[in-house]
Amino acid sequence: MASALQHGVHGNQSNAQALNLPAAARSRQLLRCQAGTSTCSCSTSYLNSSTRSALSSRQSSVMCGGSSHGAFMSLGSRQPQAQRRASHIVRADVNYYNVLGVDKDADKKSIKQAYRQKARKYHPDVNKEAGAEETFKQISNAYEVLSDDQKRGIYDRYGEAGLKNGMGGMGGADMGGFNNPFDLFEQFFGGSSARGGGFESAFGSAFGGSRGGRTRAQQGEDEKYELKLDFLDAVFGANKEIDVSRLESCNSCTGSGIKSGTSASTCGTCGGSGQVVQAVRTPLGVFQQVMQCPTCDGQGEESTPCNTCGGDGRVRNSKKISLRVPAGVDAGSRLRVRGEGNVGRKGGEPGDLYVFISVKPHPAGLRREGTTIHSEVEISFVDAILGTTAKVTTVDGAVDLRIPAGTQPGTTLVMAKRGVPRLGQDTLRGDHQVHVRVTIPQRLGKEETKLVEELRQLQDSKSNKRSGIFSF
């Protein structure tokens, strides 16, 4: 590593001042370390890139403050110390060959082909399963190591820890750094993932990487809108004007998030990289861990936030948007309006607007199932016997429907092409099914009763005549 802390980063305030370290490098977490049978209080330092350079020019050793066991640390020196313990190398937990699904003797062409296939499969914009993004990062890290002859040689010999600790005569900052996996994906496939520095901001260049930590452009979030349509508007489509609440660029700071009249300055803690290095001593040796800078949250800059937007660079406003609802939409349909969501940060692309459709009931009781319209018509038992013409309400208006004689209760009559247009195919329409319900009167007047009795006698007479033909 660029700054090899062989025993641990020891010392108290006087140690740091003795080395003339920057104030930003003296923020530390207290940890305990064991050296022989004595115990001392040691600290874990956050070192920015400029601090590591300053340390590497020092060839001095500092006694652990308050300790009687005489443990030493070496700042920047790679020469062996008499009091220093041997470093330990640990094999990587992740097998990069297995990650890409290639043999250990695979050539560069096979490695590149395996990366292309797996990167497409596990890209978070395509694969929404839990853990897909983490797998995508491992795939990118594996390709970055195995496609580089020097890194691959060190990895084959020492494992992942060799890359972290700068084995083979190479510094950890050069050998252990991982680039943004989305940048690597864009180099292969083109375009922009619009994810900004998600991986790089969270993990930086993993183990002493050299990439900056400033936030890149970020795509805006999607917005949603609930639209309730009249029954016929959902059937035939309609032009609607909706009032959408969304985040738009702040006029006070022009989207920068910085207070007007001020400017951003380089973060004093991380030196503008957006990352700090934490040196940690474990029973297996000393390791450096890159973390997001806690002062600037990985931005690399410090600034006074805008009073209007609070530093976000965006404020919520209302905007009227014209929307064309296509024919054939139904309750639960979702319409996507590209670019009408929240504006992006740092000049990023805007998100999309998703309009969720619900439909009001039809006032005449028409029901819908897909492209089929259902309704009921009620007729008397006399009309069912003799046949009739009934007025039926359809999506096209009132229509005369001929009901044939002898229609039975529960009969379904079909009016072809009187239903709902297919979504995206306006010329193709479903049917309208009319369900016939026959009403039987509970009471009859004297004349009606007399007529029905005569009808029954007539039917009985006909029935007797038919049965007499077969009698002997």
From TrEMBL:
GO terms for molecular function: ATP binding; heat shock protein binding; unfolded protein binding; zinc ion binding. InterPro entries: DnaJ, DnaJ_C, DnaJ_domain, DnaJ_domain_CS, HSP40/DnaJ_pept-bd, HSP_DnaJ_Cys-rich_dom, HSP_DnaJ_Cys-rich_dom_sf, J_dom_sf. The keyword GTP-binding does not apply. Residues 95-159 form the J domain. It comes from the Eukaryota. A zinc finger (CR-type) spans 237-318. Pfam families: DnaJ (PF00226), DnaJ_C (PF01556), DnaJ_CXXCXGXG (PF00684). Keywords: Chaperone, Metal-binding, Repeat, Zinc, Zinc-finger. The keyword Lipid biosynthesis does not apply. One of its GO terms (cellular component) is cytoplasm. Residues 237-318 form the CR-type domain. GO terms for biological process: protein refolding; response to heat. NCBIfam families: DnaJ_bact, PRK10767.1. This is Uncharacterized protein. It comes from Coccomyxa viridis.
